[in-house]
Design brief:
Order of helices and strands: HHEEEEE
Structural class: alpha+beta
Oligomer: single chain
Radius of gyration: 33 Å
Largest sheet: 5 strands, antiparallel
Strand order of the largest sheet: 1-2-3-4-5
Distance between the termini: 61 Å
Strand content: 25-35%
Number of helices: 2
Shape: elongated
Length: 124
Amino acid sequence: MPHLKPARRHIRLLALALAGATLLAGCRLDLNADPEPTATPTAVSFGPNDMPVGTLLNEASVAWDEVDAWVEESRVETQSVAAGGPPASVTTDRVILPDQRHTLTTNGDTLVSEEIVIGDTIYM
């Protein structure tokens, strides 16, 4: 650092002190801040044929007690498929309870990915 004249040194020190004071003033901690007000809950109203989600889930869980396995297929097609564009992407999940799943993803006749889950082990 080159040697500065005392006046320049004092100006630089004053500028740094002013910048530091401004920074600290913006970062103050208000220990007596008022807490944010809590929002007032709104009343839930049901229509004559409406049912709470919990009741619906309880009724649906009875139907699932007898399910051992299922197959789900999801398909994504672009608008250009009819015009000879890329084929549809199809994902098929085969689930066997309690802990097995086989997932295949294909584009047309091409296998893109395969995943097998048995317990806590995932094979890809």
